[in-house]
Design goal:
Rieske Iron-sulfur Protein, single chain, mainly beta, 3-stranded antiparallel beta sheet
Protein backbone atom coordinates (compact mmCIF):
# COMPACT_ATOMS: atom_id res chain seq x y z
CA UNK A 1 0.00 0.00 0.00
CA UNK A 2 1.47 3.45 -0.92
CA UNK A 3 2.11 5.85 1.92
CA UNK A 4 1.03 9.45 2.38
CA UNK A 5 3.82 11.69 3.67
CA UNK A 6 2.92 14.07 6.46
CA UNK A 7 3.65 17.75 5.99
CA UNK A 8 4.90 17.96 9.57
CA UNK A 9 3.85 17.44 13.16
CA UNK A 10 1.65 20.21 14.59
CA UNK A 11 4.18 20.74 17.42
CA UNK A 12 6.85 21.66 14.84
CA UNK A 13 5.01 24.91 14.16
CA UNK A 14 5.32 27.18 17.21
CA UNK A 15 2.35 29.27 18.30
CA UNK A 16 2.26 32.66 16.51
CA UNK A 17 4.85 31.53 13.97
CA UNK A 18 5.09 30.16 10.44
CA UNK A 19 6.79 27.37 8.51
CA UNK A 20 7.38 26.71 4.84
CA UNK A 21 6.55 23.16 3.80
CA UNK A 22 7.03 21.15 0.61
CA UNK A 23 4.82 18.26 -0.47
CA UNK A 24 4.68 16.51 -3.84
CA UNK A 25 6.17 19.49 -5.67
CA UNK A 26 3.94 22.04 -3.94
CA UNK A 27 5.06 24.74 -1.54
CA UNK A 28 2.91 25.70 1.45
CA UNK A 29 2.80 28.22 4.28
CA UNK A 30 1.65 26.93 7.66
CA UNK A 31 0.84 29.47 10.39
CA UNK A 32 -0.30 28.79 13.95
CA UNK A 33 -2.29 31.51 15.64
CA UNK A 34 -4.33 31.26 18.83
CA UNK A 35 -4.19 27.46 18.75
CA UNK A 36 -5.44 27.23 15.14
CA UNK A 37 -3.50 26.12 12.07
CA UNK A 38 -3.81 27.91 8.73
CA UNK A 39 -2.38 26.37 5.56
CA UNK A 40 -1.98 28.23 2.24
CA UNK A 41 -0.17 27.76 -1.05
CA UNK A 42 3.13 29.66 -0.90
CA UNK A 43 2.21 31.90 -3.81
CA UNK A 44 1.31 35.58 -3.92
CA UNK A 45 -1.94 36.11 -5.87
CA UNK A 46 -0.43 39.21 -7.51
CA UNK A 47 2.21 37.53 -9.72
CA UNK A 48 2.60 34.04 -8.30
CA UNK A 49 5.96 34.48 -6.54
CA UNK A 50 6.77 32.71 -3.23
CA UNK A 51 5.95 34.84 -0.20
CA UNK A 52 8.82 34.13 2.19
CA UNK A 53 11.68 36.46 3.12
CA UNK A 54 13.94 33.61 4.18
CA UNK A 55 13.08 29.99 4.92
CA UNK A 56 10.13 29.91 7.35
CA UNK A 57 9.80 33.72 7.46
CA UNK A 58 6.36 34.76 6.22
CA UNK A 59 5.07 37.05 8.96
CA UNK A 60 5.37 40.75 9.72
CA UNK A 61 7.76 41.63 12.59
CA UNK A 62 4.83 41.73 15.06
CA UNK A 63 3.63 38.36 13.66
CA UNK A 64 0.10 39.66 13.09
CA UNK A 65 -0.02 39.33 9.27
CA UNK A 66 1.48 37.30 6.42
CA UNK A 67 3.67 39.53 4.25
CA UNK A 68 4.86 39.06 0.66
CA UNK A 69 8.63 39.61 0.48
CA UNK A 70 8.44 40.81 -3.13
CA UNK A 71 5.79 43.54 -2.95
CA UNK A 72 5.09 43.94 0.77
CA UNK A 73 1.45 42.90 0.38
CA UNK A 74 -0.19 42.09 3.72
CA UNK A 75 -2.55 39.15 4.22
CA UNK A 76 -4.87 38.20 7.07
CA UNK A 77 -3.64 35.03 8.77
CA UNK A 78 -7.12 33.60 9.35
CA UNK A 79 -8.69 34.36 5.94
CA UNK A 80 -5.73 34.81 3.56
CA UNK A 81 -7.29 38.06 2.30
CA UNK A 82 -4.89 40.68 0.97
CA UNK A 83 -5.48 43.74 3.16
CA UNK A 84 -2.86 46.03 1.60
CA UNK A 85 -0.68 45.99 -1.49
CA UNK A 86 -1.07 45.35 -5.22
CA UNK A 87 -3.40 42.37 -4.73
CA UNK A 88 -5.78 44.04 -2.28
CA UNK A 89 -9.07 42.15 -2.09
CA UNK A 90 -7.59 38.92 -3.49
CA UNK A 91 -6.85 35.88 -1.31
CA UNK A 92 -4.09 33.39 -0.72
CA UNK A 93 -5.19 29.91 -1.78
CA UNK A 94 -6.25 28.00 1.33
CA UNK A 95 -5.30 24.33 1.51
CA UNK A 96 -7.58 21.83 3.23
CA UNK A 97 -5.77 19.60 5.69
CA UNK A 98 -6.39 17.03 8.38
CA UNK A 99 -4.55 16.26 11.60
CA UNK A 100 -4.09 12.62 12.55
CA UNK A 101 -2.44 11.93 15.91
CA UNK A 102 -0.74 15.35 15.71
CA UNK A 103 0.52 14.84 12.14
CA UNK A 104 -0.61 17.33 9.49
CA UNK A 105 -1.62 15.96 6.07
CA UNK A 106 -3.00 17.78 3.04
CA UNK A 107 -6.57 16.59 2.67
CA UNK A 108 -6.12 15.37 -0.90
CA UNK A 109 -4.82 11.77 -0.98
CA UNK A 110 -7.12 8.77 -1.27
CA UNK A 111 -8.08 7.23 2.09
CA UNK A 112 -6.69 3.80 1.11
CA UNK A 113 -3.11 4.98 1.61
CA UNK A 114 -1.31 4.42 4.89
CA UNK A 115 0.08 7.49 6.66
CA UNK A 116 3.84 8.06 6.79
CA UNK A 117 4.65 9.85 10.04
CA UNK A 118 8.04 11.12 8.93
CA UNK A 119 8.22 14.84 8.40
CA UNK A 120 10.37 17.71 7.20
CA UNK A 121 9.76 20.56 9.69
Amino acid sequence: MPTIKALCHIDDIPEQDSRGLEWQGRSFIAVREQGRLFLYDNRCPHIGVPLHWRPNEFLTPDKSLIQCATHGALFSIDSGECLAGPCQGQHLTAVEYRIDDGWVYPDTPPPTQAPDKTHQC
